[in-house]
Amino acid sequence: MEKQKSSSGEEQRSVDRGLLHTWKGYSCSVTPQKVLLSRPVLQAALGYKHGVLLVEGGQVYSFGELPWKQTAGTTSPDPILEAGLSGQKVVGVAAGGFHSGAVTEDGGVHMWGDNAHGQCGLSGLATVPNPTPVAVVDHPSDPASLGLQTQVKILELACGEQHTLALSARHEVWSWGTGPQLGLPGTGTSTTSSTHAATPPLTPTWRPQKVEHLAGRHVLQVACGAFHSLALVRCPISHPPPDKCGQCHQLLYTMTDKEDHVIISDNHRCPLLVETGKPAGEGEGEGECGADDNHHTTDDRRRSEGSPAGGKGGLLGQQQHQRQQEVKSSPSMPLLSSSTTQHGHSSPPRPPSSLSTHSTSNASSCVDAAAAATAGVGSPAQDEVTSSGSETTDAVPLPPPQDSEHPEPQQVQESSSGSRPEGGATAGAAAVLLQGQGPGTGSGSGPGAKNSPYPDEQAVKDYLKKLSDHSIADQATAKSPPLAQRSQVDAIADVFTPDEPQPLSSTSSLPSSSTSSIPSSMLMPAGAGGPGGPVGAALNSLVASCASVVGERVASTCEALSLRKVMSYYYQPTSSSSAASVASDSSANSTSSAPPGLVAAGGAGTQGDTAPDEALLNLEESIQKSCSLGDVRRQEEGEAQSRRLSLPGLLSQGRYAVQLLATSYGGMLSPRLLRRYSRSRVKAALLDAVLVADDDNLLPSLQTEVWSWGRGQEGQLGHGDLQSGSQPMCIKCLSNKEVLRIAAGAHHSVAITAQSQCYSWGSNSSGQLGHMETPSTIPRLAKLSEGIRVWDVGAGQQHTLLLADGDCFQPILYYSGQQVKEGAGQTSQESSGGYTQQPVLLPFCMNIGYVSSVCAGGQVCAALADKNVMGFIASLHELAAAERKCYCKLTSIKTQVLQPLLNADNLSTTLGPASTALLQTLIGRFNGVCQLTGQSAASLTALVRHLKDCKGMILLEHTHLFTDTYTEYSSALGDYLVMGGFQALAKPCQDVFGKGCEVVFKLVDSTDDTVPLPDLLLSLLHQPIKHLQEYTRMLLKLATCYEVDSADYQRLQEGCSRFESLVLHLKRKRKEADYTLHFWRSFPGKMTDSLRKPSRRLVCESSNKALTLQNAGRFSVNWFILFNDALVHAQGMAPYKNLFSTHHVFPLSSLWVDPISEEATGLNGLKLTTPEESFTLLTSSPMEKSKWLRSINQAVEQALSGGGAETSSLTSGVGPKADPPISRTASYTFYKEGRMKEATYEGRWLAGKPHGRGVVKWPDGRVYTGTFKNGLEDGFGEYILPSKNANKSDHYQGNWKEGKMHGFGTYRYATGEVYEGCFQDNMRHGHGMLRSGKLNSSSPSVFIGQWHADRKCGYGVLDDITRGEKYMGQWQDDLRHGNGVIVTQFGLYYEGGFSNNKMMGSGVLLSEDDTSFEGEFSEDWTLSGKGTLNMPNGDYIEGSFSGVWGSGLKISGSFYKPNLFDSDKDKKHTPRLGRLVVGAEDKWLGVFEEYWAKLGCHAADQGETSKAWDNIAVALSTNRQLHRDSPELRRSLSRSQHKALEGLEIIPQHTGPVTMEIYDNIRRYLIKACDTALHPLGRLLESLVGVYRMTYVGVGANRRLLPQAVSEIKSYLKRLFGIVRFLFPDLPDEGCVIPETADETTEAHLEVPRRVVSSSALLLPVLLPRLYPPLFTLYALDKEKEDDAYWECVSRLNKQSDQALLVFLGVNQKFWPASTANQGENQEVASSPKDGCFAAAVETLQQISTTFTPADKLQVIQQTFEEITQEVLALLKESFLWSMDDLFPVFLYVVLRARIRNLGSEVSLIEDLMDPCVMHGEHGIMFTTLKACYYQIQQERIT
Length: 1839
Known about the structure:
With 1839 residues, the chain is of the alpha+beta class. Helix content is 33%, strand content 22%. The longest helix has 36 residues, at 1047-1082.
């Protein structure tokens, strides 16, 4: 509390808080003693004769007998401060028998006290006098991390008599000390029949060790008894079974297709486990079991105990295990037997009484029978540990391999005297002997050796019969019930007599051990008789055949078989004396007292002094106990054959037959087969689902388990037996009890559940269990009066202290256990009196205050109490008690009413499917409320126990959980009420609970018999909502305990307001449900029944004629009903009996209402607008008009917000808005005739029309997703149109306008064609590209060009891939018409006229070898008419031609051969190209028209610049929004494009003439705009690049197309420059000079040339890099011959040295770079080196191939000249002026050394695209020099 209303503040708190009271016994004269301390006690812990106290501030005090203290007096009745903890803030303490522990705030552990057994975790000290730190260190299991240690943070401690447990922050358990209660491997103890004080002679575990069997589980609390331990564990989250191995990640199951069936094989053997070198089955939590090695049955736990004689628990067992590890040489080889005879044969090993916890099996509710399959110790009777600590087993005759007909019995040596029989060891022992014939039995017998004496199935049958006969005879001589000389199967068959229906549980009928618990010396080799050998395989096939044949007859009998009858047959108790005689005889005899069937049925023959009846009781209880994990896969080598199962019929019919065979012959059956047949079928609970998030960060968990381990001679482990175990096991019967707190006395255990029930088990010698079961080996409820709710517990040596709620909210104390007599002078030997029969109320509990927690230890009880300061403590206890009471009430309703109703057989048929589904939803929501209430109660209980403050109250921290859960429950309750569910539920309720339904009346607390049952059920299920008022009242009550200005007061008031709003909201919802139910009852009929829905609530209706339709007919009747989701308009004619013949439902989400002005019309009317119609409603008065307007608007607003309005109104306290938005999101299905009939639209609306983004779906499969405007598709959208082929559909994605495809888009046809381009009126119109077919189809082609009305029209390019042709020319009506060019992949080139898709008219045809024809054409490649045929050598023919080119021509004409003396001009008659092609200015007009249209211009340069910029801004924002909405489009933009978009938001602004600065801004803006396709300029540039590449790539890479390609680029530049001048009108025209600015005058002396405006300088840098690859390819093809000649000369000349080359080129010697040999001597050029002269200039010139634009290339040439000049200046050391005679040879040398491969192409590109303004300047001269060098090199000849 921050500021409580108290004058003394902290002083008052220290006086009234944390008062400790101690006492002994329960007599009326007992008076608690108050322990006086200066500070409040936060926690108390009691040992046998001492105690530890934690006070506020973190200090620790001890009191009582403290013999470990190094002081004169070891007894201190007054608390003394533990000085060793000074400076440490302790947060928790614990006390054991004679030692103590403390946990500090940083997670450290301090221990002190007796340390004889290592319980303090400090080696070398018998006692620890003062608190000493104990290091809890985690050693990583990763070999790479060896040597690294991690300090473990501890949350709490628990101390026993000889051990200590610690719970870490990671919710793992650590232990140290001595005994099996540590839960560690190798810490088992030999059990004795003596009392609890017996100390096993085991080595203590000094260092804290992690309890690996609980690793991976979330442990919530630990508790220690004297020699046993408990852990409260949160239930693990269930996952589906894995389909892959956790180690090697291979599939665990494989399927193989055969002819008529599928074989499913699980024969997976992990290679990683084999390589580790572990014995088969030996691994603790690793390999096969992994983290799930914590599920074990009682038999596994028995075998986990240590003994001096066997296993790893005892010393001898450890030595034997070490010897076995030494002998073992192969991972897969069985270990050799540790005992062999002199003859070399292994003697049958004695079944060990204990096995290591390393190798305990994992057997869950489905019992793993693999133990019986691999070793005789698989039977529980053989593994049982007796009270005298010894065991014995009889030998069984074993047929030798030579002759199976004459078995010779062998005798197993008995152990020490006083042993007891180990149970029936007939077939089980035989299996042991069989498996003992391992490697030492015969020569050559090993894994996989086929030396079995049973070669076939018949031999197996014979041997099994002999074995069973011998077993029965052996039983007859061992004082067992006579079985007459019959076979085992006959004996079992006689037991199958009809009894009450009780199926034979496979969970307890089979032994639950496994191969992992068997020493390898007892493993059967794969070839001998194991599951994988011939015997095992034959036996498994025998089992399978028996199961399939006998299954049908046996199954029904086994289903009805009573387990008790089977057990009474095998174990016939006569009397208590006979049982005693059996027990006494069993100590002297070595034979079994029970037949093997009893072993297999899950019982142990005798158990100490346990009576037979108790053995039967324990057997039945053991069916329900054991751990909670699934079975574990076992990987035996020889199991491949037997593990294959095909078709599951065998599993269903043969399960019981296999079970019977497994009782005696389990040792030879495949463990997998047994496991498959022993799986039980569990009926799923209906109310187990948790609807509230079970997050430990928010709420405490209710799904818990209790695990126990240690000594169990008193039954304190709770597993239904008296066995001990060092391995933690789950107490199965507590798994669904929602245990919240556990406590452990010396030899008993207690658990408190969320239902405030107390379960106890263990020793009951003094009545400490609270019931008269003596002793109780399973948890049982303590006997408490009805209404007593226990919420805290303390357990002492022989007593239990309970803290509970009674009739009032002040807690009360109950005591059960030993009475301690009062007397002076009593110290250690207290005189004990009687004991309680059941818990008794301590009368003084009301006088010590409000008890918050209790503890007990030794014979002392202690209670921590608080005084009621300003009512806060009382209010807090009242709130917690009310929550616990409510949870108990809700749990009773769930278990006593709801669960039986759901389990009723005829529920669905009585209620109907719809009502049943609503009921299931209601019960599910009820379960969620119940779960949340339980978690809240647990949290409040913990708050009262520890914090006692409101800061951690989940009612305040997580109010939204309560709001959401109760709102959902109230909605489900209202839905069921509205549909009349409670009236229909009355009959099933009477069928289940009887006509009186006393259970319902009792739970409702109703004594009025006249209340109808439906009302009672409604009241019963309304109880959780009533409980909400308690929250409001108690939070307000708590708030009054604080100052008004404190933060806690504000938080409590806010929480109170929220719950008050929730209560009011739920009351309003209940009222709406009642009103709606009354409406349905008042107006029954077909129409109202069709309108009845669970979530529909009535708002108002017009049956009182308050609302009428304007202009309605004279006899028409209109009825308007307003629901929370729709407005219903019913119509009819007055005279007819069926008044309302039609009705229509208008969803409120798509309804708009507007009031009609009374001044204009004089009417009280409302105008209603729906998507398809509008109508006017008239009201009778202005008041009615306002009422209906408000009701409709509120209903519409609530319908639009859904559940959001309810939540917002709860949190903010403000109701829904009065006026719903005119623009909204809603869904509507059109019903009237038209384009949208039966289509469903979901999206944005505006005043009754789709407006904004939405989705339309038609019944025929058409779907449109995109934007709307005024009810029509407008903007960007996607449209899917299914085709006749059901598997494919047309898909359009692009722009729309007024409901039609308009603008740019992509249309993917179902035929495979794809069109990407412009649309208009749903047709392809404008520029676009069509891809037809695919590469492997009949006619793949790509067309790009102009479209008109869905047809090709204008200029376009068609690439016909199959024909290898490309057409570039004019089109008309999808046909080639006009001038055009065709190039083919074979080098043919045609330009000329086309008509009707054919070459027709004048044309020019050229072939690859320069043969050409110029003349008339009539068909494709068909010459027809006059023309001239030119040969490559200059010869030509003139005349008439006819025929197909390449197929022979008919010529009528003259042949001409040029004269040798003719000039070259007269010789060549090559036709001039380019005359019959489409001009560059006429190409791609549609591309530019599309762009001008985006700017808002009808034609080029016809529009307003400001409007164009507005359109650009709109296009940018639209495209950016589109990319933001689409993840795919968003990913398509690069980071640079995102940055460019940010820069494009600023438009270059300027006034006056354009200066250099403005010009640079314009240039930078153009670069950014062209870098992204979201800008219209960038989109235009992208289109131009696309069409250019489409034209001149592939087949279009023809050298004769170079002039057209260059002309096209120049045309682009001209038209783009026109666009730029339109956007920037002040920009000067082409060739004009930009005036210099004032700041440029300072640089005038540098003679910088003035900037000339040109399209090349402005646009070529952004255009040419994108077009460079196809353009340069054309240049390379065109200059191929010249470049080859040039390169040949360069290659030859570069072989020369620098000196030779300089001499050859005639370079003036003074320009030769020189090296000075001696100072002052003449400089000479080294004759041998190459590439040493002018290296910098050469390297610079080589960069010309890495640039794109002519300007960049000219810049490289200029830098090359500068590098030459700099080097010459450095050489001459004086200024000079170049002359061309001197410069040209030097530059020629540099060009040669630069070795530029395609220099001719570079020169031609510069020449064609160079800016005209630099043609005659310095750059022009330099370029002319380079060009001259290129031609000079071609003519050079080396002489």
